[in-house]
Amino acid sequence: MTVTVDTAKLPMLLTALRLPTFARLWPEFCARANKEGWPAERLLAALCELELSEREQRRIQRHLAEAKLLPGKTLDSFDFAVVPTIAQARVRALAEGDGWLQSGHNLLAFGPPGAGKTHLGSAIGHELVQHGYRVLMARTSDLVQRLQTARQDLALSQEIAKLDKFDLLILDDISYVRKDQAETSALFELIAARYERRSIMITANQPFSGWDAIFPDRAMTVAAIDRLVHHATIFEMNVESYRRRTALASATALRDKGDVADDTDPQEKEPATPSSDIDT
Ligand code: ADP
Ligand code: MG
């Protein structure tokens, strides 16, 4: 006996139920099920599983877009060999998330320009998003600007609360907070609000001793550092600029291949540094 089923409304129903994968795949899957005589349970389970896995993928894509990470700056493109002070296994473990994000543990990366701090932050962010966490990466001065604007509108605590949805805030280049920004305590309030609850990663060109210009006064600088380091992993990346290193390596490779004229003064093969290394 052939039963005819009215499928005309199915696309509308599936859209109303927010099941885009079902809506896309049911014609093909149902046709196959009918042809191959699948039990109804098998058809249902197959569509449900695909809907769920595609939903997960869509979620990760959304969280990647909101995270503002640097495309391509991932752990796979990070060469750990040039930063011997950083244990790859430790970074990979952190990048999986787990306990440290739940307890508001922080990550601090110190090193000169070009050491790979921003790359490392972005890379950890990419991994965490893949593992289901929410991340936001920003230049510290941009984020402080946003907080200051909120403060002028008497909405600083709401703005800080909005950032609570992110398991990790990556504040890139804290040393570039401008003098006028340092005159308000917006950054301190963010750090204090997240203390022991929500994680922060900070990258800095300057050691703590140079942080006085970032906060309104010495006492607040000490209080901020105290909160940041209480539960923290510190990456000391005191290595030569990666840009400079790779520029030198390619100049050497060219010379070894004979592509560079022999009469060139070796001094001229040195790339222009360090001005090109300064990130702003
Ligand atoms: P920083 O933030 O410390 O100034 P960046 O992370 O911006 O340095 O690194 C400068 C450039 O060098 C970027 O293009 C980055 O991808 C690259 N780089 C730095 N360190 C590494 C590394 N260990 N492996 C691969 N690329 C690196
Ligand atoms: Mg940087």
Describe the structure.
With 280 residues, the chain is α/β, with parallel strands linked by helices. It is built from 13 helices and 5 strands. Bound molecules: adenosine-5'-diphosphate and magnesium ion. Residues 73, 77-79, 82-83, 111, 113-119, 203, 242-243, 279 line the site of adenosine-5'-diphosphate.
Total number of helical segments? 13
Order of neighbouring strands in the sheet with most strands: 2-3-4-1-5
Which cofactors or ions or other ligands sit in this model?
A: adenosine-5'-diphosphate, magnesium ion
Task: State the total count of DSSP E strands.
Answer: 5
- Separation, N- and C-terminal Cα atoms: 74 Å
How does the helix and strand content classify structurally? alpha/beta
* Fraction in beta strands: 5-15%
Shape: globular
Would you tell me which CATH topology of the largest domain applies?
A: Rossmann fold
Number of domains: 2
Q: In the CATH hierarchy, what is the class of the largest domain?
A: Alpha Beta
Order of helices and strands: HHHHHEHEHHEHHEHEHH
Which second-level CATH architecture of the largest domain applies? 3-Layer(aba) Sandwich
Provide mean pLDDT, rounded.
89
Main sheet record: 5 strands, parallel
Low-confidence stretches: 260-280
Using the CA coordinates, give the radius of gyration: 26 Å
Q: Give the helix level as a range of percent.
A: 40-55%
User: Considering the protein shown, what is the CATH homologous superfamily of the largest domain?
Assistant: P-loop containing nucleotide triphosphate hydrolases
